[in-house]
């Protein structure tokens, strides 16, 4: 059993199963969430509940954040919190945020002798529960070594991208872009088959057992083939947020991403049609809309 104390901030669809897995692995968690009711199930598992983010932290210990966007992370990690966390403290940031925000946070943390490690996770909630996700990490080398036992309890793979705090976030945005692009590709292919009288499920089963026998195509392909966008594990507005961050990151280094532009338009169109509570896979409905289905 582990004895490390961890402050855990952010209990959304992804944060909650991550926190649960840490508790089951023997870590002592103090949790905080803006909506306090989301802490109840974790409290039953033995987690302590804090009323504020700063109250949750232990000086010189670990803090894990799984927050929705850049603004939420910056608002949560106040100077008060960092001062309390202090020397020896490490912030493991698992949120999908911009690389530049990670770099800014790292600089701010250093003023309080707090280390910052970017550690975005590739996993839907069910993958976290099964421990089959993957995590990218980047940041201070010594801090990364210290946090590896923690992140390794969550996933099957941990991939180190060096000391630039923003590097792991670049990889996360690139990966999420590729997932969204794969969903668009499948949506177009399945829709073409459907308009030719071939069931979407049939083309899904054949292709994901042969040419595209990979988890992204098998798992997201099933969602697209069956139009099962509820319950939402990752809502459409978050998908739009990630694509916008991808385009901003690309523009900052003068990289053209025309497919990302198409995806952004799919997300915007889906939200305009009132689909904000559906899973981000619902961007695939755009291809059906265009085909009159």
TrEMBL record:
Residues 166-282 form the 3-hydroxyisobutyrate dehydrogenase-like NAD-binding domain. One of its GO terms (molecular function) is NADP binding. Residues 5-158 form the 6-phosphogluconate dehydrogenase NADP-binding domain. InterPro entries: 6-PGluconate_DH-like_C_sf (IPR008927), 6PGD_dom2 (IPR013328), 6PGDH_NADP-bd (IPR006115), HIBADH-like_NADP-bd (IPR029154), HIBADH-related (IPR015815), HIBADH-related_NP60_sf (IPR051265), NAD(P)-bd_dom_sf (IPR036291). The lineage of its organism: Bacteria, Pseudomonadati, Bacteroidota, Cytophagia, Cytophagales. It comes from the Bacteria. The active site is at residue 172. This is NAD(P)-dependent oxidoreductase. Keywords: NAD, Oxidoreductase.
């Amino acid at each position: 059993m582990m004895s490390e104390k961890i402050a855990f901030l952010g209990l959304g669809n992804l944060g909650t199963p991550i926190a649960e897995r840490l508790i089951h692995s023997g870590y002592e968690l103090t949790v905080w969430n803006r909506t306090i009711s989301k802490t109840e199930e974790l409290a039953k598992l033995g987690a302590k509940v804090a009323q504020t983010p700063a109250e949750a932290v232990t000086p010189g210990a670990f803090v894990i954040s799984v927050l929705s966007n850049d603004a939420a992370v910056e608002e949560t990690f106040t100077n008060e919190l960092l001062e309390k966390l202090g020397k020896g403290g490490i912030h493991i940031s698992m949120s999908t945020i911009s690389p530049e925000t990670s770099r800014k946070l790292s600089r701010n943390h250093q003023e309080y002798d707090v280390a910052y490690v970017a550690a975005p996770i590739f996993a839907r909630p069910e993958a976290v529960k099964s421990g089959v996700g993957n995590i990218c990490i980047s940041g201070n080398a010594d801090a990364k070594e210290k946090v590896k036992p923690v992140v390794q309890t969550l996933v099957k793979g941990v991939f180190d991208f060096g000391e630039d705090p923003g590097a792991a976030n670049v990889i996360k945005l690139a990966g999420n872009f590729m997932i969204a692009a794969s969903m668009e590709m499948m949506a177009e292919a399945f829709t073409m088959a459907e308009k030719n009288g071939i069931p979407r499920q049939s083309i899904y089963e054949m292709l994901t057992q042969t040419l595209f026998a990979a988890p992204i195509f098998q798992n997201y392909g099933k969602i697209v083939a069956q139009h099962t966008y509820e319950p939402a594990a990752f809502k459409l507005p978050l998908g739009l947020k990630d694509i916008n961050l991808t385009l901003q990151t690309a523009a900052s280094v003068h990289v053209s991403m025309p497919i990302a532009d198409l995806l952004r338009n799919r997300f915007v169109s889906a939200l305009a049609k009132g689909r904000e509570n559906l899973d981000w896979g619902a961007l695939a409905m755009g291809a059906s809309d265009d085909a009159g289905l």
